[in-house]
Amino acid sequence: MILKSSAFGEGDSIPSKFTCDGENVNPLFEIKGVPREAKSLVLIVDDPDATNGKTWNHWLVWNIDPHTQYLSEDSLPQGGVEGVTSFGSVRYGGPCPPHESSAHHYQFKLYALDAEIKLPRGSSKEEVLTAMRSHVIGETVLMGMYKRKG
């Protein structure tokens, strides 16, 4: 599988528009190569560089239609159900590292599953990961960087 964005390439800087310093909206994504047997997709956006070694969750979306080719900017994907982020909200929360920190790595992880996840909106990342267990049939990661100015 391939996950691409016209906003940034693998390892490139994420434009501030998609962060807490800008419009704080999700970028456009293109999806290719989803296995034919996939029944749903899961997108998890996180920051493994967050403080105290604890990964910060920026967006959790599951039950995305496996035929989806594009995730539009500033929108919930077709069929998608959102989980709670580390910000305590149930929506996309863009990169927002502390001003004094070095650039953080942001992982946009896409998974193809052979089933849909039976969880309600607002579920946690741990609940999603548990529900995904033994159902992942494909995965890919797009990594972007972000460092705040000032």
From TrEMBL:
Pfam family, one: PBP
Entry-linked InterPro entries: PEBP, PEBP-like_sf, YbhB_YbcL/LppC-like
Species: Candidatus Jorgensenbacteria bacterium GW2011_GWA2_45_13
Protein name from the UniProt record: Phospholipid-binding protein, PBP family
NCBIfam families membership: YbhB/YbcL family Raf kinase inhibitor-like protein
Lineage: Bacteria, Candidatus Joergenseniibacteriota
Gene3D superfamilies per UniProt: PEBP-like (3.90.280.10)
